[in-house]
Amino acid sequence: MSAPEWEMLDDIPSNSPIWKQWQKLVNDENWTSDCSATTGLTPTLSTTRSVWAVDKKDSSYIGCVVWNEYDSIALIGFYLLAPAYRKMGIGSKLWKRAIERIPKDYTIALRSVPAMIPRYSSQTTPVKGPTLHYCTVKASEAVELCNKFLPADFESGYSTTKLEDLSHEEWEEFLKFDRKITGKDRREWLAAYRSHEHKFAIVVFSKNDHSIVCYASTVMTSHLHQHRYKIAPIYAIDDSLGLCSLRTLANWIGSQYSGATIYCHLMEGTRGFEFLKPKLEQIANFTISGTTLFSKPYNNPLDLSKVYLPNNSSGHYDI
């Protein structure tokens, strides 16, 4: 098959039907890191940049590079061509255009599957960062595992509020909590995520002083009919809260669909990788999801000791 007549577009509007074609293709690829929040909200974020190849005849999707620019980072979340147009040289032209547009003083970051690391390392991103590992579990398995390590009355000292139900004052305190852990002002992303339909997100307060001690969320990923949920994130001040919030999320997922699959992505260097991974390995096998690559050394402000599972998506990058 020869390449069609195509044109290159920069930064298409958020209401363009091309985004819907892109979203379907991402879901078809079964990239479980790229949840419905990422594909649903990325088109609307002020930080989103994109380059597209579309068919001149009918403006249908051929390929794209999509990235987000913030905090002097350009995180390339998607480099994706429709299967029929791969290996035609279109992707390299899109990539070249994207790299030309990224500010020269920014750190470029992307996540690569193991097979593609040599290619990306030899070009734009030679600096190797942490590797992401994932496993899949059922809701009942996760709940049973957490119960093994938590006292029956552990939750009595805490209260839980859904993200969308926070008062104005609690919302502002939550943003401070998130900023303290991530080292980033993620207000725009979190405000959009707060109203996202396919998520369940909780904020945990200490009953002693009403301080925030944990933020945890799960969101649907891949096609909705597949009933897949990604835990993203769990930020907590201690191990027991990390486990307790995982149990809460798993219980909720089980109430939505008993046969749902839960994806747990753990990043090297985080407390979750050290503490949760050995426990999850009792019931599941881990697989490497990808390795973060950078264009130059990057000092991540994230407080790794409070991260049990990261957000781990381009629109809301934490690690």
UniProtKB/TrEMBL annotation:
Residues of the N-acetyltransferase domain: 1-178
Lineage: Eukaryota, Metazoa, Ecdysozoa, Nematoda, Chromadorea
SUPFAM superfamilies listed in its UniProt record: Acyl-CoA N-acyltransferases (Nat) (SSF55729)
Superkingdom of the organism of origin: Eukaryota
InterPro entries reported in the protein's UniProt record: Acyl/Acetyltrans_Enzymes, Acyl_CoA_acyltransferase, GNAT_dom
PANTHER family according to UniProt: SLL0310 PROTEIN
Record-level Gene Ontology MF annotations: acyltransferase activity, transferring groups other than amino-acyl groups
Database matches in Pfam families: Acetyltransf_1
Protein name, UniProt field: N-acetyltransferase domain-containing protein
